[in-house]
Amino acid sequence: MPPNPQTTGSDPAVLTVVTRNFGTLEVRPDQIIWLNPGLLGFTRYHRYVLIEHSRESPFLWLQSLDKSDLAFVVLDPRKLLPDYQPGNLPQVMKELGVTHPEDLKVLVILTIPPDKPQEMTANLMGPVVINLRNRQGKQLVVEDPRYSHKHRVLPG
Amino acid sequence: MLILTRKAGEGLFIGDDIRLTVLEIRGKQIRLGIEAPANVVVLREEIYRRIQEENLQAAKARNEDVQEVAQLLKQE
């Protein structure tokens, strides 16, 4: 069993999570993102938090709060393709209950081969969409011939 | 594996809220209708496996590699 997040003594609502990459994190309930269903392959895990990689970096970490060593590198796909569309946008917004377009966060998951980071790819077929208003999200599957699950980010 | 025989127009339930219907049989192809709650993932097997495998690979990312790609991207 993975170690479960535990509540701290000072504020019972704050989760303390010991992570692989970020040491001990304290997460407030209003920072928790719920993915339902969870990511394919990890459907048991629903609670995540977004962490900035660094101020100058475009990357974010999507860190699981249910499994401390589970984290994904994510990126705003518009940094790769300015006109990227996560499938049928009105339908996506309806499913997530998004009423204002600015409340919809779209992220793509990056795969970075160990020791070959220049070969990193972005999964444009499986974007993660989040309603920032209620922090509910899910992974979509976009079947569009323009979007590969292994979109090369850097030139070879 | 549970194996059932169904004709076109017949269906089956998986639990209380997933309903599968055989809509049409045409040569080697079968058209299926699926009714399931919104939080149930329904995908063609090859698509499901592709996304799942990519997620499994993505979960191996290491902080030092992200550091490096951030540098590489800056040089672009």
From TrEMBL, chain B:
The keyword Zinc appears for this protein: no
GO cellular component labels: cytosol
Coiled-coil parts of chain: 44-76
GO molecular function, one term: mRNA 5'-UTR binding
UniProt keywords, alphabetically: Bacterial flagellum biogenesis, Coiled coil, Cytoplasm, Repressor, RNA-binding, Translation regulation
UniProt-annotated location(s): Cytoplasm
Domain of life: Bacteria
Summary of subunit composition and partner proteins: Homodimer; the beta-strands of each monomer intercalate to form a hydrophobic core, while the alpha-helices form wings that extend away from the core.
Official protein name in the record: Translational regulator CsrA
GO biological process assignments: bacterial-type flagellum organization; mRNA catabolic process; negative regulation of translational initiation; regulation of bacterial-type flagellum assembly; regulation of carbohydrate metabolic process
Keyword field contains Repressor: yes
UniProt organism field: Desulfobacca acetoxidans
Function per UniProt: A translational regulator that binds mRNA to regulate translation initiation and/or mRNA stability. Usually binds in the 5'-UTR at or near the Shine-Dalgarno sequence preventing ribosome-binding, thus repressing translation. Its main target seems to be the major flagellin gene, while its function is anatagonized by FliW.
Coarse class of the protein's main subcellular location: cytoplasm
Family per similarity comment: Belongs to the CsrA/RsmA family.
